Amino acid sequence: MKKVVLAFDRELVIAEKKESRWNIHSHFKGANPITLANDPHNSERLYCGTFDRGLWRSRDGGSSWEAIGTLYSFGDVYPSDASSMSSITAVTVSPLKGENGDGIIYVGTEPSALFISRDGGDSFELLTDYRQIPSYSSWFFPQRTYTHHVKHIEISATNPQTLYTTIEVGGLMKSVDGGTTWTEEKGENHPQDIHILKSHQQHPDRLYGVLGDSFLKEPGHEYAESYDGGQTWQYITEDLNHHYAYHMAVNPNDPDTIIIATSSNPHAAHEYENGRCESFIYRKEKNQPWTRITTGLPVAKGTLIPVLKATVENDFYLFSNKGVFQSIDGGLKWASLDIPWEQRFVTQHPYDMMIIE
């Protein structure tokens, strides 16, 4: 049995395969679920962060959900400096176990703050609101310039005490003590707008980042790598013809096979507008330039920028408004999963995806 959990901008869809047939059901219709995580110690324990209704937990693989954390009433107004978990923008679960044997949960919010739960989501505490970071006052999110948020939380693949958070737009924050203290990684040629950050089991200090920096600086800043834990960066953009990069997957068994999702600009990436959106998939191997991938994928025009995932079985998955696609050959060729695709999905933005075996 395989299960695919899909976070759209107006609902959470769970597709479950039994024998050869996919069945789908939806949760949180009308809400804004944008980030997902599951417990590495318990495949039935899932977490869904919504931008408008806080954090939710499922103990039964997504069949039912309960609100957890410091959830406030939907629609309430809070002071701009209040740290709350009402607007969730990132969530991940550590392989380190908490008090009751569940993975430790990290939750990022808007305004930028990071919360932790060591008891499987029964209670949370504020780890940091980053106000101690020197550049804090300059952070901003382009669509809401009065605020900013945690865009991504990455737990080091080799040391779960090392955490990275990316701020949109604010740069890269790093903790080597599980989130107790934080430093700003603002070294040579550092990116400011990291949408997704990845680490790799085979290379402790290698980081991969897909970026929006080309629209803060100039084209040629859409993808970068660091080989020293974020101190210095190298931009790798040969043959990338679309300069806004938003999602990424790296083969867990091959650190040099990378798939990224790009668009010509943020507007084309995120706004459907009667199908005028567009997105493009690129693939890279060791010592090779980027190559655009099209085989088995929907046409670029009308496709909102997709979510990408890689599994330990060397499979890649892609989730867009046109469906869910799988590659079993390292991202060269793709095939659509036979998930029933409702017409309402086509106009919705894909935000996150989980593959549960």
Concise overview:
This protein is mostly beta strands. It contains 1 helix and 28 strands. Residues 71-75 and 78-82 have low confidence and may be disordered.
Which tags fit this structure?
four-stranded antiparallel sheet; single chain; 28 strands; mainly beta; globular; 1% helix; 357 residues
Please provide a written account of the structure:
Helix content is 1%, strand content 44%. The chain has 357 residues and is mainly β. The strands form seven sheets. It has a four-stranded antiparallel β-sheet, with no helix packed on it. The longest helix is centred in the C-terminal third of the chain and has 5 residues, at 266-270. Residues 71-75 and 78-82 have low confidence and may be disordered.
- List low-pLDDT spans: 71-75, 78-82
Report the span from N to C terminus.
6 Å
Order of helices and strands: EEEEEEEEEEEEEEEEEEEEEHEEEEEEE
Biggest beta sheet attributes: 4 strands, antiparallel
Kindly state the number of beta strands. Answer: 28
Based on Cα principal axes, name the global outline. Answer: globular
Radius of gyration: 19 Å
Main-sheet strand order equals 3-2-1-28
- Helical residue percent band: under 10%
Alpha plus pi helix count: 1
User: Which percent band covers the strand fraction?
Assistant: 35-45%
Mean pLDDT: 93
Q: Strand pairing plus helix content: what structural class?
A: mainly beta
